[in-house]
Amino acid sequence: MYSVVMAGGSGTRFWPASRQARPKQLLALTGKRSLLQQTVDRMAPLTPADRVLVVTGAHHAAPVIEQLPQVPAAQIIAEPMARNTAAAAGLAAAWVAKNDPSAVCLVLPADHLITDETLFLDTLRRAAEIASSGDCLVTLGLNPRYPATGFGYIEAGDMISQDPPPVFEVKAFHEKPDLATAQSYLESGRHMWNSGMFAWRAEVLLAEIKRFIPELAGGLDELTPDLGTDRQAEALARVYPKLPKISVDNGVLEKSDSIRVIEADFGWSDVGSWDAMAELWPSDRADNAAQAGKLLAIDASGNLVSAGHRLTALLGVDNLVAVVTDDVLLILPRERCQDVRQVIDTLKANGLDEYL
Amino acid sequence: MYSVVMAGGSGTRFWPASRQARPKQLLALTGKRSLLQQTVDRMAPLTPADRVLVVTGAHHAAPVIEQLPQVPAAQIIAEPMARNTAAAAGLAAAWVAKNDPSAVCLVLPADHLITDETLFLDTLRRAAEIASSGDCLVTLGLNPRYPATGFGYIEAGDMISQDPPPVFEVKAFHEKPDLATAQSYLESGRHMWNSGMFAWRAEVLLAEIKRFIPELAGGLDELTPDLGTDRQAEALARVYPKLPKISVDNGVLEKSDSIRVIEADFGWSDVGSWDAMAELWPSDRADNAAQAGKLLAIDASGNLVSAGHRLTALLGVDNLVAVVTDDVLLILPRERCQDVRQVIDTLKANGLDEYL
């Protein structure tokens, strides 16, 4: 069994903490360990460090290697360019299959937070069992807590096992819905958030890729002889540009008829924007939260502050986000956290690339 | 003629830029020169550096000497403790009188900004003429621009000279008024803001102090033999604790019948709080102003930012003040700038003295 950590994200919504050279998964947004380090730490009871594979972008390989000294450097695979998750998951499956085609891959995003680690591990163990014993692709579906419009949904079909965590067939995948649709999903009791966490045997994923994305399968076949050798980087540089850009959800899962969803309820956050930190940082009685440093609030509530080890004094302001880095100060209302992208676009438009 | 620069202020309203060890007059709030340096620079056409006397607190003497290398160190007089402006002005007058009792002292706060320097110098020249030729204390009254409740007012009496700048007798001094009273002062056309700028012959001030604050006069008499000698610091340490705490306005000017007020209109700001920087810092078309560094504002207006050389990104926020220093982040609405004192009080109450 292998953990496959997908560490290709850029995380622009955590600007200015996240930067092109320092994406979200490399940040210590909570505590002292980065999201990537926490992801690998969390898997240790299931997969020791020599059974961890990290797929990341070439320009992030160096900091990833630095943050994960316990993982053999050869198992940190640098994609020369982003080709979406089907290519990344397929590459990892090809790497694993070269050693052991029947090994289970537990595929995990590098930039998520989990509250209940015991239940998380139990759920993954169950997912691995199912993947190991049947020719199916197992997804982890999260019980929706609110009518989220920012996630895709998995619609459960017939129940296959009711032992907790329960397992279902999958009736359909749904793209990010509008609010009314999200509300109906929430009320249906049959829809779960698509977590981006999966379990499958390497050979099963590769077979499904061959069936549904033959162009990708051809590329992976071309790569396989060089994987794990000193020709790997050269082969990736040659083959990767030709690979199709498609997600594993769109390219494989939505088309396959061998999908299972396992119901997950282990306190999960995709840490999608600064606003998500409200629940994760230490806060005062007026819900002012600071990542670190002292906080002094007078007539102030609901603010989120990341200002390093500075003392933050807030006087008469509410529901703001403020972030101080070495070269940037950002201030915005919490309800506009999703619009940080606009700042990045404006920086680009003004040629201020040094701040990206 | 001497310039007497009163540099004893603490300027808590510019926290966290101003600190106990670095009060407002030592800060470069506009441009690269501190308010103190600008004050001394501005006087150069009237009084060369060897005719400048600075009265400051003992714990600020070192940075004052450092900021004013052109002023003889012996003319930077360190008060061992604050004893308000009557003592400071009296001490300077005693120092000057020891050399030349008839010399005119131009008394100036160290922490004000002047826009029209030519008119400022012309006004002071006129004030010096009047002080030099009559046994009177000359105050500079500023034409009120709005019904300020934060300043004392001087009520003009009969006009003595209508040559610009016009000179009047003084009918009364008024303490900081409430808003309705301030409005009536503004409409009267006879009330001016009390600027804290004065001109008088050293011997004239000392005579008035002897008449109205004999206890202070006694202390100054005790000090005089040691002023300008290597016994000065010791004498100040012995005598200063005994001096009465009273302002030159309350202690002398309000009681004297030899006061003149000269009407001043040279673009003055006491830079009383962060809010005052709106007119002084570079700003964009939406009235967002930054002391330094790039400013990127989206749906944001009327904000004031001091964040060193950082790029500041503002998204969807209005009329805020944000200040970043090495160890503090402060955010508040502009209309609460006067309440920064509350933050300082809270820091004290919580034993966070290192931030004062």
Essential attributes:
homodimer, 356 residues, alpha/beta, 5-stranded mixed beta barrel, 4-stranded mixed beta sheet, 10 helices, globular
Your description of this structure?
Two copies of one chain form a homodimer. Chain A has 356 residues and is α/β, with parallel strands linked by helices. In chain A, 29% of the residues lie in helices and 26% in strands. Chain A has ten helices and 17 strands. In chain A, the strands form four sheets. In chain A, strands 6-9-7-8-10 form a five-stranded mixed beta barrel. In chain A, strands 12-14-16-17 form a four-stranded mixed beta sheet, with no helix packed on it. A two-stranded antiparallel sheet of chain A has the order 5-11. Chain A is globular and about 60 Å long. In chain A, 46% of the residues are buried.
In short:
The structure is a homodimer of 356-residue chains. With 356 residues, the first copy, chain A, is α/β, with parallel strands linked by helices. Helix content of chain A is 29%, strand content 26%.
